[in-house]
Amino acid sequence: MEIIEIAKDLISFKTVTGNLSEIERCLDYIKKLLTPFGVKVDIFKNGKASPVIFARNTDDMHFDALVLGHIDVVPAKGQMFIPVVKGGKLYGRGALDMKSFAAVAIKSMAYVAQKKLDLKFGFVLSTDEEKGSASLEAFLKKNPDLKADIVLDNDVGGDVTKIITRCKNPVYVRLKAKGQAAHGSTPWEGFDANEQLFLTWQNIRKVYPAFNTDTKAPVDTWIDTVHFAIVEGGKVTNIISDEATALLDFRLTEKSSVKDLAKKLEGLMAKGVTFEIEYSSIPVVVDEKNPIIESYRKICEEVLAQKVEFEYMGGATDSRALYERGATVVMHSGTGEGMHASGEYVDIKTVKQISDIQIKFLEKLAGQK
Question: Which of 41, 255, 56, 236 is nearest to 146 (CA)?
Fold first, then answer.
């Protein structure tokens, strides 16, 4: 099973989140790859949720190890769905995020089944991760007994020499400003909802500073941050807005709680502005001295022939869902650049290295049973 050829095939499917026909074609392709190896493959569908593919070598819902990932991608021009290999790099939409590593999961699954390793192993690939992973949420809700001792998460792309041991908690907060409409020429007769939203914005920025290419990154990036993701207010130019909203994307470290965030926000609202926490999760924090992490790191250093370091990641991970169910999460991916951009690529050598590491790790787990 040639991993780069599988990755190229996966890239060729235009699995933009919501493109159900292409997503289903891609899932059928994966199922056909694995069926000859005797792998149990189900394509889970639940109401309006996007499908999920669930492959495994057991009927037991408590796995020794499980890979978690996705096959959907963000939109791109048509030519990005034609994979290109150049200079040791694989270019295309999803090359880094994360079809190359979905290919890794497929190869690992085939290997475990073919070699009949004494290991309860499988993978779950969702199809709407780029827009919130409602499909994975529906799948896990339908399978409350699904657990894994170890979750292998390759959706943290960037550097094969880094193992991620911490991810932040994403918290989405909706601001709602209420005002009083009036003609734009007589603002004293109205109460501007936009203005109150901006005042609240300024208050929040006193607590959570803004960062950009001009300010550069802080010395310590392991801090709580927020950006104003969506701002809406006003309908026409000559009317004072009577309502405005903003969606804020907070990223909290393990030192901050959602409860504490809410307390802070209560004191930052301008007149007429309220807030609602629309979504929150948990941070993922893995003990770097955990024997599982130490074992995985040792295999990495053997395969890469160099030292592997631990790193923190400001982004969130879908593996937090199984982390909540008691899994030790191993977050590690290959090297590449351009995630969600026009020049997205992955270093081919590192994809093969991730595959070798994963298989050696699974062999070791099976040997320890």
Answer: 56
pLDDT string in tens for the chain (369-residue length): 799 999 999 999 999 999 999 999 999 999 999 999 999 999 999 888 899 999 999 999 999 999 999 999 999 999 999 999 999 999 999 999 999 999 999 999 999 999 999 999 999 999 999 988 899 999 999 999 999 999 999 998 789 999 999 999 999 999 999 999 999 999 999 999 999 999 999 999 999 999 999 998 999 999 999 999 999 999 999 999 999 999 999 999 999 999 999 999 999 999 999 999 999 989 999 999 999 999 999 999 999 999 999 999 988 888 999 999 999 999 999 999 999 999 999 999 999 999 999 999 999 999 986
Show which of 280, 298, 324 is a domain's final residue: 280
Q: What distance, in Å, lies between the first and last C-alpha atoms of the chain?
A: 27
CATH code where residue 151 lies: 3.40.630.10
**Please, what sign has the CA dihedral across residues 181, 184, 190, 195?**
positive
